[in-house]
From TrEMBL, chains A, B:
<feature type="domain" description="N-acetyltransferase">
    <location>
        <begin position="77"/>
        <end position="231"/>
    </location>
</feature>
<dbReference type="InterPro" id="IPR051016">
    <property type="entry name" value="Diverse_Substrate_AcTransf"/>
</dbReference>
<dbReference type="GO" id="GO:0008080">
    <property type="term" value="F:N-acetyltransferase activity"/>
</dbReference>
<dbReference type="InterPro" id="IPR016181">
    <property type="entry name" value="Acyl_CoA_acyltransferase"/>
</dbReference>
<dbReference type="InterPro" id="IPR000182">
    <property type="entry name" value="GNAT_dom"/>
</dbReference>
<keyword id="KW-0012">Acyltransferase</keyword>
<keyword id="KW-0808">Transferase</keyword>
<protein>
    <submittedName>
        <fullName>Probable acetyltransferase NATA1-like</fullName>
    </submittedName>
</protein>
<dbReference type="Pfam" id="PF00583">
    <property type="entry name" value="Acetyltransf_1"/>
</dbReference>
Length: 232, 232
């Protein structure tokens, strides 16, 4: 599994002047908390649908809750949540990561058929009852051996369908890159499907290089479990 | 950077009977300690030479020492060291990981031109003065989003040239897989060069699948540093 944001989902960017008929859409990236788990679970399922891989989807809210929050942010598995609102955000307490806010100008605020399902529990706890979870990125430290320095590997990134084409995918990936630089990390990596030329073009425009010679080897399922027997 | 062990380096396996002219080579996989850093540094350099990428080699003993041992083993960056000896190993104290030992039968014990350089400091501290560092594997937790479970990503694996073709690469990779199963992890991944057909064949024989559709995107250097400026 890897980044699934299509380039088309990431194209437009806000201009500085509001034109007639345009609306402001407030967006925020913040650290996930355990209260986000039900939303993260649903977002991962949407990603499995998008990739035609629902047969591989076995994650439960319980498996996510028990694995995602055992280390301080950025030391191990880390999730950023993308939220949107038609009103400015109230401040949240987040000492480990100052939330990133952007105001996006859109021609029309698309109807969100799942607005109620994806109502932000975390924002609501802070008295913000108008906030919707629109996407996420899950990343984890990697290691750049030749540099002797850490990096980040972006495992998955998703922007919900009705919020695509508003630069939110770029905003999420940029937030990971910015955090990497802040921490002195030397690399951010992720995977892309080789036929997704729009995404590849977009990533290259972001400054990434696509490594054409390397292939990922994956050991899972029974083939992996066989190594649990010391007599393999 | 990724696994560089060629399939040829991993082919033969010890039989259970010692034939005339054969010798026993004792081998052990154990967790690295900070005392191994000078050896790890030299092994990474040998990997850079092997990959024709010495221009990318900026790791120092100091950068390795300050980044590799900040978390308990298996929670973040983790290094297994491969050691060889012509005599049985003395026990070492390693509560976090029981060392894995194998005795390999070889037709002749190849001369190791760097035996003195790679003399094991850690084994020597335990009174074992005959032990040589022969390779390493560096791995780090990853996350299988669809399963909601951790995995391991193998960042680099190297067996020194004079110890290749003795199954040590397989032994190192298997040790990572075994540890993954022990911890309930659901995936082990690594990268391979697509033209390295011998390695791919070997990995497939180990049960791995090669993901042909996915490509790695990498953001490094100035392109990454640009994201440190909040105005990117």
């Amino acid at each position: 599994m890897a980044s699934t944001t299509s380039a088309a989902a990431l194209a437009s960017i806000a201009t500085s002047t509001t034109l007639v008929g345009q609306h402001q859409l407030y967006s925020r990236i913040r650290l996930a908390t355990p209260a986000d788990v039900p939303h993260i679970h649903k977002l991962i399922y949407q990603m499995a649908v998008f990739q035609n891989e629902t047969h591989l989807f076995t994650a439960t809210e319980s498996s996510l809750a028990s694995t995602l929050f055992n280390s301080p942010p950025f030391q191990s598995f880390t999730v950023f949540i993308l939220e949107v609102s038609s009103k400015p955000f109230k401040n949240i307490h987040s000492p480990a990561f100052l939330p990133i806010e952007r105001t996006v100008l859109v021609d029309h605020v698309a109807a969100d058929p799942e607005a109620e399902t994806f109502k932000s529990v975390v924002a609501n706890e802070d008295g913000d009852d108008n906030v919707t979870v629109a996407g996420f990125v899950l990343f984890v430290p990697s290691y750049t051996t030749f540099a002797g320095k850490p990096g980040f590997h972006v495992e998955d990134l998703l922007v919900r369908e009705c919020y695509r084409r508003k630069s939110f995918g770029k905003m999420l990936l940029s937030a990971v890159a910015e955090q990497a630089v802040k921490m002195g990390f030397k690399r951010v990596e992720w995977s892309v499907l080789e036929w997704n030329v729009n995404a590849i073009k977009f990533y290259e425009e972001m400054g990434a290089k696509v490594l054409t010679e390397w292939r990922v080897c994956r050991l899972t399922g029974d083939a992996l479990e066989a190594y649990g027997d010391a007599n393999y």
